[in-house]
């Protein structure tokens, strides 16, 4: 039958091609929609961290989190949509070429050789993107957080799927590839803790040292400049951390608002020094 | 025969397609059921740890463990079900396309190239999931446990198949990828042990030192605030751990309830100092 | 011929399928039997360690070793049987599908893509299982042994094909993946050795120091609390290990029963201190 | 039909070949245009860093950044164009050979074997190029910046897709492969921070020390040689950083223009020494 | 022809199958013979070490080496024979199945997928075996040698193709995988060397110190308890190894029989101390 | 048509073969020419370093650089030509075999298996060659340069595509594989910098110390033995590098000709000591 | 035609097989000849090191180098010849089997699966051989040289393609795999350099110290026991290497014959001590 109607294959081909293109276009739209929905749902309510943060959230933090959520959804969505488009349109193109009886083997060969060559080297890139994707999905950190990314410690200035940009305490700007971050420590979630070790002489009166330190903790908690604004609970005096022939080390610990531990411990040190001076208890080499 | 009945292939195809879809649907349901059963059995009774914990379990711990078991079963099941669905439905789709004589080679090529490209980079992801799966299966740790995950040490706040979220003593929140955890140390299973090293002068009376320390141990065990609540056996005085020209080091050891070793050893240090002061035995640089 | 007898292919197919299933069932049974036999033989008499241990084995140790042997055979056998079943039944299923002229290419494609994707990530898992298999086969350690697994040191609490569970001296429970253990040190096989270094002053009488230490060694060996129960030979006095302007270091060495070296060396230190005190020889900083 | 007209296949082939060559030529031009556009857009406005730098940009910096932008676009474009040309022309060549019924299998075999052999070893090369590409795209650093590339720290002298050339403080020229740089610290973006630790005696008057240091900070800020030219805000006196029996450590911190921290801290040290000398406050071992 | 004689293919197949099985059986025997011969030759005369050892070999050592040679040949041969059998019989089986027109593709698919999955994980195993094979072939060490295997140092207790079992000085038994041993240090081949550093005061008479030490070396060589039995040449006095304001360090060196260096140097230290005491030359801190 | 003329295929084959050989020969010549040109251009003008060096180049350096350029072009060209020849001639050979209807599958199989086996192990080799190729192309270093190659530091004695041969300060000759060099530090490009730290007592007169050091710098610059020949600018006195209770550290810095920093700093130290002695300012422990 | 002459294919096959075997035999001989020639040329004149050594070569060294050259050529040739034989004969065997219409697919499958399984694990082995091959080709070291192979330092006792056997100063024999040696330091090529640091008091007369040291250097050079036999140039006195409040460090440097630096520096230290004693200049702690 086909041999008798020379136009038949062409017509059939044309029809098939149109059909393929329509299907591809529809599929692509559907894929994009699905991605948008999934990503929005993932960004909005699903992540562990956002729920965790709500506990201490005030209105402005909520607004900030909403903005971060929107950005995350957008960043993730754009890459997934690109991938979906490339796969669907690439498949459609190859099918059309095949239908036109144009040999696609040479093309596949060229692309394949290039693909393998690049593939080996591009692993790291894909690793970075996957790491970035999940990092966003799990909302591990955002702009403004103080994080420890292993390779660098500092304040996050920008987050993309491939890299995280930090600025450290010396003003150095760090570009860290997401795939090289095997664990992240975020200092800006919930609370931080400040420790001050107080080495007193071996023959100091343990009871009065403890009393001085505990009184000082209550003072700090009473201080409106610190309470709630910088610390979130009364400082605690732990027992004897270390024991030697020359000194006994007391430890004072206090929960602070996120990333305020350095400032609080500096203030604590000053006050402890003054209070012990007043009580006539000297400090010794720790 | 086929050439004579032009509708025959179509009819055959249609029939085959319906058959394929039905089989796929049935298979998927069966797979899900099997997964549910297997996962539940694995989570309920099979894990080593849960059996181990029963030894010291009280009612509330049992309830907690039941809840953890349920969550683990759910987490593991959801991923396995997704994988099963994707494989079964993907195979069905390809078979249908093949039956419709639509060429699937171009599609496979596109997906294949993408698959290889992503595959190299996604190894780490798969590794994380497999590690997480087995970690849950073996119940290595759960929310609330204090663990040493190598990259970070702290209290577990959340466990997913990909990451474990910890909070360390400084309040820093750590996100650790499960695949990077080659060994886990769990401090919250059964008991912990506190050690206090007591360096006494070279010419101290060994017998009386030992007596003081042993008496102190019995006192602690008699103290209702510690017995059972914080320590689980009478503190033991080990012999001479170290021998030099200036000091002899005695070691006091005590089994505590999980993760209470820091608190107990602080109390011990304080009491030893007081007791030795009373007995007139000085401490020296260890 | 085939075209004339339409039922022929069907009948042939049905026959072939039945044949295939029977063969598969037979093969599977044979494979399981072979595995059981091989594993039992491997666990019973072949391993180096069990033969080594016999040297010091008493009845109770023999019973323990028999139990360990049985468990090892079971653990190894179960996995090998699962693998054999999957291969034989999978092959049979594919052959049947093929005979039914159902296209298996799409199925293979789906499974293949998934297989490669997972394969990369699952290497570690397979590595763990292979390592665990050989570890069991060679009986490197068992429950109750004190081992150094690199990542953690402690008493083995459980051994599976994937992980080894240890409890260290602080009560921390460690889960170590078998594949990450490149070398294992087992302290519970045969004997251990305790060392005590004795630093005496530069002008001490070498002959009398040696005499004191040797006499003390004989006393310990004569002490029924230690002989056989804790130590397995008379303590030996090695010569001068170190030479400086302030001290000469003698070393006392003694073979103990497995894992008793800490206890024995503590006792030794105490006795050496007392004996040298009596002999009027002071100890100096080592 | 084809069998009857012997010239037909040749004519058809000739036609096809011409068509292929035309399409290849068109495609190549289109690809180059697209690359030029995309790269220009990426280099011009999209990068995070350039937007960030604008904040402190003066005219000359703008000119510099424009030049850098142009160079980046060119460097990236040239490689992408080469790749596009090779793929398109290679495919065209293979298709032509195929149409001429010249067997291409042997050629593919030779190239394939060579490709695999080289591919394994060339991974690092591809990695370097991909890293360099993204580094340029994200404008992580440029000629003249002081960077910490891990393997070496110094001033960037040249940037290519494969390597970055630095000169360190000792005059040593470093060639660092881009792929080996897992994180980059750029000291020339925005600002740097200088720290000077001031250890004062334990019994020093804390209030007057702080007063001296604060007064000194204001003086420096008032000094036109430093204000704006070298420092960008008034130096700040942090509280007590460290606390021991011999000293109290105050920390002075000041934001400087990029990479001026060494110079500023040297000047600060000199001034602090002089000021404390005048105030009669000695420095102690920190 | 084949279509006319229905029994022909069957007969031909049967014949071919018999032929295949005979060839396989013959090949296997030939392969085993060749392996036995090659391995024996490799173990007997070819290895570098055995020739080296002959230099100091006495009869009993020769017997020992012969036994070691026989064991090595056996260990290596058994694995190679297994591999040869599996390849030859596997090929024969597949060829027979193929001749019987049973489809072998599904079988190959199952085995292939399993093979790839396991292959990745089993690399380490193959690496261990290859390393063990060459280690035996080159006779790097044997039971009773004291070796440094990197991960552990001790006396070899057992050698298999996969692991080496050592016992260290503390009695700990180490299982080291052969593939993880990148370099081995064998202390039991030929000779060892003992060093003793002798720090004398800055103003000591260099000539008389040297004389004392040289005289002592000759005495040791004259001592029949040491000569030949423990040391293999007269101890040598090296010049001034180190030069400072407080001391001059002389070094005494002596070649001992393998692994006797610790014992010899202990004796040397004792004698040097005594000799210098007699000569009135004090030792100082080195 | 072909079936009727039995000689036709042979004739066609012969013709094709001759054609193939001619094309191969032509292609090979063209490839060699192109390689020669490209390599020459790359070596002559394109590299960053050669342009950089011109800045301080005198005639003899120019001659040296020309020689180095010629050698580099030759080294790179020879390998590329070998690769091109192998690919072109290999393809031609396979095509000829194919045309002669000789089965090439077995050959490809043998070569393929060998290729894969070797390929894995040869990665390092290819990596070395690629690294060497780019190193030459970018003219990172040449014979006579003093470089820091990570694994070894010394003077380059020879450069091949696979290794770099260095001789270090102790006369040790190092063979470093190019692929293991991730970053190179070249001390012989442009200039080096010598630093001398001068610790003066805490109460020293800062102004007069600075004056002494600056005067000394000018003297050195005036010294014709040093100016231009060894140093390339007046030595600079940096401010106070370090601040403690016992000393103030001044730093003197001077740009020298490449690799002369050790010699210059030795001379500087001697002069500073003498000058400060004369000025009555003592040095203290830094 | 073929169908009509039943014996034709057989005859043709027989002929082809004979032809194949003859070609294989010829090819193998040619390959061996080529390898012999290439390897001889590579070993004789081409290597960098041998040319370098000629500079200081005496007759006996030339003989030694000739012997080493011959051995190297043999070692390299034997492996290359084996590889060539295996490839040529394997290809011939497969081609013959193919001609005999024996199905070779099952054989290839078996060998292929085994090949992949072993290939992964054997990478290290191939790496070792390739490293050894190039090491020999470049004559990096030979028996009798003192080398630093990273994992071990000592005198080379044997070199094979897979391992290098060293004996270190303590008499320990090291087996180092060639592939694990990323860089080699050879101390036996050309010359070595001995350094002695001479710390003199801060107030010592620099001129007279220098004079004493320089005089001593000339004496050593005049000493026929050292000149040419042990040192190859007059010892040089470098300037002040280090500068502190307590000492000035002079450095004396001397080029020695290869590997004689320890012996020469010991002698130098003794002479410097004596000479400074005579000159009344004390040494201080460096």
TrEMBL record, chains A, B, C, D, E, F, G:
Pfam assignment, any one: MS_channel_1st
Transmembrane spans: 6-27, 78-97, 103-126
Presence of keyword Nuclease: no
Main location: membrane
Subcellular localization, as worded in the UniProt entry: Cell membrane
Record keyword Mitochondrion present: no
Membrane topology category: Multi-pass membrane protein
Superkingdom, natural source: Bacteria
Record-given protein name: Small conductance mechanosensitive channel
Organism of origin: Nonomuraea maritima
Lineage: Bacteria, Bacillati, Actinomycetota, Actinomycetes, Streptosporangiales
């Amino acid at each position: 039958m086909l041999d008798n109607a020379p136009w038949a294959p062409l017509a059939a081909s044309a029809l098939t091609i149109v059909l393929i293109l329509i299907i591809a276009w529809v599929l692509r739209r559907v894929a994009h929609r699905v991605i948008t929905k999934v990503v929005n749902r993932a960004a909005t309510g699903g992540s562990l961290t956002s729920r965790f943060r709500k506990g201490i959230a005030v209105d402005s933090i909520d607004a900030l989190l909403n903005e971060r959520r929107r950005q995350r959804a957008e960043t993730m969505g754009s890459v997934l949509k690109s991938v979906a488009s490339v796969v669907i349109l690439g498949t459609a193109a190859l099918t059309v070429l095949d239908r036109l009886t144009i040999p696609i083997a040479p093309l596949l060969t060229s692309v394949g050789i290039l693909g393998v060559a690049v593939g080996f080297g591009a692993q790291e890139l894909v690793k970075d993107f996957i790491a970035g994707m999940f990092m966003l999905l799990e909302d591990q950190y955002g702009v403004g957080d103080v994080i420890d990314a292993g390779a660098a410690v500092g304040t996050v200035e920008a987050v993309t799927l491939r890299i995280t940009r930090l600025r450290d305490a010396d003003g150095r700007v760090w570009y860290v590839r997401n795939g090289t971050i095997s664990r992240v420590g975020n200092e800006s979630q919930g609370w931080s803790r400040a420790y001050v070790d107080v080495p007193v002489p071996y023959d100091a009166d343990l009871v009065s040292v403890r009393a001085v330190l505990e009184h000082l903790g209550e003072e700090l908690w009473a201080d409106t400049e610190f309470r709630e604004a910088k610390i979130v609970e009364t400082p605690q005096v732990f027992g004897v951390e270390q024991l030697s022939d020359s000194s006994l080390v007391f430890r004072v610990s206090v929960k602070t608002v996120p990333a305020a531990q350095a400032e609080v411990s500096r203030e604590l040190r000053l006050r402890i020094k003054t209070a012990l001076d007043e009580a006539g208890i000297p400090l010794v080499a720790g």
